[in-house]
Specification:
The chain contains 16 helices and nine strands. The radius of gyration is 20 Å and the shape is globular. With about 400 residues, it is α/β, with parallel strands linked by helices. A nine-stranded mixed β-sheet has the order 6-5-4-3-2-1-7-8-9, sandwiched between helices. The relative contact order is 0.14. The structure holds iron/sulfur cluster (SF4) (2 copies). The site of one iron/sulfur cluster has 12 residues, from loops.
């Protein structure tokens, strides 16, 4: 029996939102080319599967995909912008144990400004509340923190707490997946101070899961200052991403798409043990992008549990004698920037932001050709089983 993995299935590159930090909506996949249930059947057994997009609920056959994935996965979480409320509720009725993460980018005004969806906050929030009322246990917010929404970070955490929900965070990344190379945090100390407050509140809770999230958010401060990841990155060793074309990749953080093989045309064993897959693993070993996204950090936190574990124990001990057990100046680089030993320009150079980069989108030639006759917005409603927003 093959080793159990951690997998992410990108079911579509189409998206109905217009986020400021992601251009994926401008580079959609052609619906006819998107991953089929036949290809999903070839995936290995997984202890965790994340279904994402684009916006996964654009696919009207998502239920069939989930049904197939449940045959091989212990736990499934879908990441969504929460716009297609009826489709989400309908799917959750059939799969009450599934996890749903709705990305909300701040309080109402901020969220709608970042996401570019009319009434996006209310739709996302209403969907979340309905899921909680239905008795769904694994429901939560996801927020990508940037300069504009950092002040909403703690208020949004408190809302998620009141509703008894999970609260997942990220910060800006650049990659082919986001079709973006210019994302960057401008006011690092301001953004870090909001993460600091969040870390302290998480540490004060009684939940070990939240203490681990505190460590993750501590790592986000380290990341926005462009420092080396706190944990090794082992993507492509027992973790993979598969995209709408069936291309298997180590992660979604690389500048260009790194392809280990294609599951439409290969078996899993062929692909996973191929020289191409080994070449990608060699690149991962020397990758300097230092991403800190839950997809690559969560497996590392499990594998190197003693590192976050010791951090948590130390800060919980501190919380016995201090009101605020965590301070962002614990990070050497944060102190150095405060003390003028390192400049903003030097930190900017440590980030993956590249204003001159040609942005890669990972699209197939046919999907790119589609854009000549079909506007990206129209692709949301295109394809087999016409969509209605
Ligand atoms: S971040 Fe997500 S919701 Fe926003 S445009 Fe990109 S794929 Fe769509
Ligand atoms: S650091 Fe890891 S997750 Fe990020 S691009 Fe490199 S291999 Fe991918």
């Amino acid at each position: 029996m093959a080793k159990k993995m951690n997998g992410t299935v990108i079911v579509t590159y189409r998206c109905n939102a217009r986020c400021t930090m992601c251009n994926r909506y401008k580079a959609p996949s052609r619906p006819e080319e998107e991953i089929t249930v036949e290809t999903i059947r070839k995936l290995p057994p997984m202890y965790f599967t994340n279904i994402t997009g684009g916006e996964p609920f654009i696919r009207t056959d998502l239920k069939e995909i989930v049904r197939e994935l449940y045959k091989k996965s212990d736990r499934i979480v879908i990441s969504t912008n929460g716009f297609f409320t009826d489709r989400i509720i309908d799917l959750c009725k059939e799969f009450p144990n599934i996890g749903i993460r709705i990305s909300i980018e701040g309080l109402e005004q901020t969220n709608n400004a970042i996401r570019g969806l009319d009434d996006g906050f209310n739709r996302g929030y209403t969907t979340l509340k309905k899921l909680v009322e239905m008795g769904m246990k694994d429901v939560g917010f996801g927020m990508t923190v940037q300069d504009l929404n950092a002040p909403d970070l703690v208020p949004l955490y408190e809302i998620s707490n009141e509703l008894g929900m999970e609260f997942a965070t990220a910060s800006l990344h650049n990659s082919f997946y986001f079709v973006e190379a210019k994302n960057i945090i401008h006011d690092r100390p301001m953004v870090a101070s909001h993460f600091e407050e969040l870390v302290n509140r998480l540490l004060k809770s009684k939940s070990p899961k939240k203490w681990m999230r505190a460590y993750f958010n501590h790592g986000l401060i380290n990341y926005i200052y462009g420092q080396k990841r706190l944990l090794p990155c082992d993507m492509s060793f027992d973790t993979f991403f598969i995209d709408p074309y069936g291309d298997v990749m180590p992660c979604n953080g690389t500048k260009d798409k790194e392809i280990m093989g294609n599951l439409n045309t290969q078996t899993w064993e062929e692909l996973w043990n191929s020289p191409e897959a080994d070449a990608v693993r060699a690149k991962v070993r020397s990758c300097d992008r230092q991403c800190w996204m839950i997809g690559s950090v969560s497996p590392a936190m499990h594998k190197y549990i003693w590192i976050p574990g010791m951090w948590v124990v130390w800060h919980k001990l501190k919380s016995l004698v201090m009101k605020r057990p965590y301070c962002m100046y614990e990070n050497k680089i944060v102190r150095e920037y405060r003390d003028g030993k390192v400049s903003k320009e030097e930190l900017d150079q440590c980030s993956t932001c590249d204003l001159c980069a040609a942005v890669s989108d990972g699209l197939s030639e046919q999907s790119r050709q589609q854009l000549q006759t079909l506007r990206a917005e129209e692709s949301v409603h295109a394809g087999p089983g016409e969509q209605t927003v």
